[in-house]
Amino acid sequence: MNAAKKPFSLYIHIPYCISKCPYCDFNSHVVPEIPEKQYTEALLRELDHYGSRDEWQNRPVQSIFFGGGTPSTFKPTSIGKILARVAATFPIDADCEITLEANPGTVDQENFFGYRDAGVNRISVGVQSFQPRLLEFLGRAHSAEEARKALEIVRQAGFDNFSLDLMYANPSQTFFELEADLDEALTFQSPHLSAYNLTFEEGTPFGHEYRSGRMKPLSEDEEVAMAELVERKLKEAGLQRYEISNYARPGFHSRHNVNYWRGGDYLGLGAGAHSYQRMKTDGVMGQRWSNEKNPGRYMALSMESGVAVVDREIIDETKALGEFLFLGLRMTEGISNDEFCARFSKSPVDFYPQITTWSDAGLMEERDGRLLFTRKGLLLANSIFVQFV
Ligand code: SF4
Description:
It is built from 16 helices and 15 strands. It has 389 residues and is of the alpha/beta class. The protein binds iron/sulfur cluster (SF4). Iron/sulfur cluster binds at residues 17, 20-21, 24, 26, 28, 68-70, 103, 126.
């Protein structure tokens, strides 16, 4: 296939939320009035710009992901307008996965029928917990009842492909509460479920509480035990773990995220969105760039020239191979040794002799020409990843 015609994934960032969760370090903003019309226009302008660039022109779109922030704060007419422009700009794969993230506090039945009619075929619902106490602790803008109702509406609107997000390893969460969350989540029979452990990010209120010693995380043993409970319950229910935090029934993995983990190209539009393009010239293996994060400044830049890029990074071989391992090993299938050798002309162990030590310790293994984490390794993956980046 001509390199220029390789499929890519499109990410569209909607940076507005109805309130800010205290653990969140995403580029999300609470404003008195969401400038939906102006922001949509800025996205269209950016889309037109990239559609006219040689490196993206005529390349098929394999997945589209509306992430945030809270994309469900936008009306179906705006989402439809953006999707129509994408279709007028690029060829769209017949089986293109089109996901929209939704917060239960913004779910309205009519809107969900509208998103489906606009072309969205997958919804990701940020439930986090069904326990009122934990929702309050997490500062979520919705109740447990609203989360249940949102999941019902998503199903009624005809979305067979939907995902539910849960959060665990919250410092005040009990095993009983986690089990209750998993049991209730499973009653909705979502074909995909993400279970993230709470992290204390710099610059967030939770990060501040954690660094000042006022918020104590769970012990590593407790966290590992919770991760094991999540994996066991979801596996028993037929959801296979395919990435550290992601589980799916066969055929329902997130194609969009798998493209990130396999090091594929993606184009990000909107405030703070990142893009990545592979290349191979004179030791340069790729480039990454990111947009202005502030929504107001993003809109001004995009309306002026269609470009809102404020940062570019050239990916050299050392960085590229570290990222390829770091991202690929997040998936339970691991990485293909042949593909690694084709990209970097050596095997993973040639670059990282520590792989032998990790394999001897039972954390990694080679199976059918692939390098992957063992179950034990997946539980300790984060401490191993720091050595690849
Ligand atoms: S709803 Fe999501 S994006 Fe918005 S503040 Fe909460 S965690 Fe962040």
